[in-house]
Amino acid sequence: MSTPFLSIVVPIHNESASIPELFVELAASLREWGRPYEVLAIDDGSTDDSFERLLGIQAAESRVRVVRFRRNFGQTAAFAAGFALARGQIVVTCDGDLQNDPHDIPALVAMVEQGADIACGWRQERKDRFFSRRVPSRVASWLISRVTGVKLHDYGCSLKAFRADVVKPLKLYGGMHRLLPAIASERGASIVERVVNHRRRRFGRSKYGLGRIFPVILDLITVKFFLNHTGRPIRVFGALGLASGAVGVLMLGWLAWLAAFYGDPVGNRAALLVGVLFLLAGVQFVAVGLLAEMQARTYYESQDKPTYVIREIRETL
User: Fold this and answer.
1) Which of 47, 104, 137, 268 could cross-link with 196 by S-S, CB 3.0 to 4.6 Å?
2) What is the pTM assigned to this prediction?
3) Residues 196, 118: Cα–Cα separation, whole Å
4) How many structural domains does the chain have?
5) 269 exposed, middle or buried (CB, 10 Å; 0-12, 13-18, 19+)?
């Protein structure tokens, strides 16, 4: 099989009903393209017959590669596996629930070929519930844009096209797939956005809701720290530690002054305990916080340790 120019990464988790139509649409959108491509279907621990359906499609289509996780590791891990295994010069990510329109893929790929490093889809006319899906997504996109400085209308849209040499080196943990443009921007990647078609969900139930905004905030804090303070983390934790320690020293100094010059008994004062607490918290901010953050990065990157475990890979040679 020739080396593909384009790799399409599709995470699958209990999407059995949508799989046949999804692959028909993918083939239709790329048939007239005239370039070699591959589809990496990542079965993220599905408990229905998604894997069996994927094998049936792969048996008839050699350009489909099926990767099966041992359990559900999440969408970020599925994308990370797809990026690691992709052989194309350009990598496209796409949801497996048919809400992303595969016919938008050529236009996004064209934007990358014209010079962009990342082309992001924007679901301007999103076909989802307003309060449970659209509002949290808009709030999250606004917040990410403000904090990272990379302004996009729709960070949550999975339909994106990447240069392989831009996305492959990136390390993804937690739910950071939605923050990929911001992470890549720190490394100088150029990012463009294009309105894409979004369709109503026809099969199954959405796996996201209002509760997703809180993990997004936590991931955003983590990304912001690593983007801006990885080389100087002591400035973050040190500032908190010095502030806390200064409050503790002032309180303890004040108590010592009262005891030395006025003979006031301070042993039973609550301020003594609070001052000691602030002082110890300052030390812990500098020591424990910094060590914990840096150790987590060392754990994954020094061993090149992935955030997923592959059960098997099925492909036609």
Assistant:
1) 104
2) 0.76
3) 15
4) 2
5) middle
